[in-house]
Amino acid sequence: MQRKKPKAKAAPPSPAKIDREAVIKLAYELYLRRGGEPGHDVEDWLMAEQILLEEKKRPGPTGGTAGRERR
């Protein structure tokens, strides 16, 4: 008896592309705002990505970058 091959799952939709340099700059800015406390590099990176992705989703003439709200 032949084994049935599992159906391939569809790949998840690719995330919106964000500029890596923008993530680096914003993550560093978040690090400085926190007083330069070490040990939160991944948290800062993920927060920077989230902020930039949210900006991209906002409608606006400048692609959502006007009036950037940072946490």
Query: How many strands appear in the DSSP assignment?
Result: 0
Low-confidence stretches: none
The percent of residues in helical segments reads 40-55%
Q: Please state the CA-atom Rg, rounded to the nearest Å.
A: 18 Å
Structural class: mainly alpha
Question: Which short descriptors sum up this protein?
Answer:
71 residues; 0% strand; elongated; mainly alpha
Q: How would you characterize this protein structure?
A:
The chain is mainly α and 71 residues long. It has a domain at 20-57. 44% of the residues lie in helices and 0% in strands. The protein is built from two helices and no strands. It has helices at residues 20-33, 41-57. Helix 1 crosses helix 2 (41-57). The longest helix is centred in the C-terminal third of the chain and has 17 residues, at 41-57.
In short, what is this structure?
By secondary structure, the protein is mainly α.
Question: What layout of secondary structure does this protein have?
Answer:
Blueprint: H1 20-33, H2 41-57
Helix pairs in contact: 1-2
